[in-house]
Amino acid sequence: MEIDNLVVRYGEKAAVDGLSLTVTGGSVTSVLGPNGAGKTTTVESCEGFRRPDSGAVRVLGLDPIADHDELMPRIGVMLQEGGAWSGVRALEMLRYVAGLHSHPLDIATLVDRLDLGTCGKTPYRRLSGGQKQRLSLALAIVGRPEIAFLDEPTTGLDPHGRREIWQLIRDLRDDGVTVVLTTHAMDEAEQLSDHVHVLAAGKLIASGTPDSLTEHGTKSLEDVYLALTAPKREN
Amino acid sequence: MTTYAPQPGSAPWSRKVLAHTRMEFKLLARNGEQLLLALVIPVGLLLLLGGTGLGHRLPLGDGRPVDEAVPRVLALAVLSSSFTSLAIATGFERRYGVIKRLGASPLSRTGLLAGKIGAVLAVQVIQLAVLIGTGFALGWQPAGGPAAVFGVLLMIFCGTAAFASLGLLMAGVLRAEATLAAANLIYLLLLVGGAVMTPVDEYPAGMQSVVRLLPSAALANGLSNSTVDGIVPWAAALSLALWAGVLGYLVSRTFRWD
């Protein structure tokens, strides 16, 4: 995945302002940054939801807007919230999305792995926050994508649930899936990432492996992040 | 041990469209408000107009009340399923992020629209069966034979294309709540002022030239021409096709996945 000098504006304001970065295949890459840094806009540009004002985005060698129909079967997207009809049952939604793909994962195995069995017949609007998160992750990976974009995948999960999702993300990576993670959880990024990009005000301000950013573990990624993104004070 | 090794690919287009049609139809069947619009209101209206003396007191047309009421109630049913229900459902799909989720799936824009139209047509088959059955039970005597059948199908096809385009356009440019309000308002306005239940000739002279241009007037008069006069309503079909072309173009320009 390659982003080259990307600019996306909302009116006068540039949400992404000349961003360039690369994501290597078969890795877990985290995109970090404060609220409003441009993370979601950047990822949505890769998913074909935002049209760049200038610059270029290539995902698997394709243009997410011009090659939309060719690209979509090859990527999986986990939305931060929503993404299902309020009256649809969890398992019904998963089967429906699986049916749009040619070689989906085995539903029963995925349901078991993500602990969705107890809520399979529950309408989406009645699912707990954690169940919605797990269903959303299942919907993102059920089509066996080459790249999975996961937006805050463990928000609202208890510690056991978080660890289970972390292990699933590692398994995805080990099986050759490229994972692009946006998160505010620094421990998550530190634990999972092969590469970390830090954004602020629509620009890339730091990039590297967790090991290099934390100076071989002498600092925590959270301390590094806070130092990088601290608001500037005027004297 | 499950392997997550990438093996991406899209299901065949026909399977995706069928899956989406089935899903939208199932969700609609579970929704009481949608069923009210699709069946309860048209059937209730037909019973009132064709089964009581009320049809004699209202300006439905020159024929027997039940003969005049059936095609006009069919027009109302097409309006409710292809426009009001579709607009509201699509507006809330956008609100709930469903459109966005489907935008990041292999469904494709044409697959989504075809699936939606498929669900609308499935509803219309049920509407037609129930309303025509009710009409015959009330003594409906359609004229025209095969020409009338062809005319009705032509009108339903063209009317669905025009009104579904209008519904998708509204759901694409308005917020979900605004779509809900506007779709219901337009439904009521067309019911009363759009020559759905009353022939254009019954409107005040100054209004007739405007009302005649509305797609609702073309649909209702075309259906009436088919089953009351027994003729194929080519002019009404052309009018609806023009509406569908213009509105469909606007939908293609305004549709977005988020």
TrEMBL record, chain A:
It comes from the Bacteria. Residues 1-226 form the ABC transporter domain. Signal peptide: none annotated. It is found in: Cell membrane. Keywords: Antibiotic resistance, ATP-binding, Cell membrane, Membrane, Nucleotide-binding, Translocase, Transport. GO terms for biological process: response to antibiotic. GO terms for cellular component: plasma membrane. One of its GO terms (molecular function) is ATP binding. Its main location: membrane. It is a peripheral membrane protein. This is ABC transporter ATP-binding protein. It comes from Kribbella sandramycini.
TrEMBL record, chain B:
The keyword Transmembrane helix applies. GO terms for molecular function: ABC-type transporter activity. Residues 18-224 form the ABC-2 type transporter transmembrane domain. It is found in: Membrane. It is a multi-pass membrane protein. One of its GO terms (cellular component) is ATP-binding cassette (ABC) transporter complex. InterPro entries: ABC2_TM, ABC_2_transport, Nod_factor_ABC_transporter. One of its GO terms (biological process) is response to antibiotic. The chain crosses the membrane at residues 35-54, 74-92, 113-141, 147-171, 178-197, 231-251. Keywords: Antibiotic resistance, Membrane, Transmembrane, Transmembrane helix. Pfam families: ABC2_membrane (PF01061). This is ABC transporter permease. It comes from Kribbella sandramycini. The lineage of its organism: Bacteria, Bacillati, Actinomycetota, Actinomycetes, Propionibacteriales.
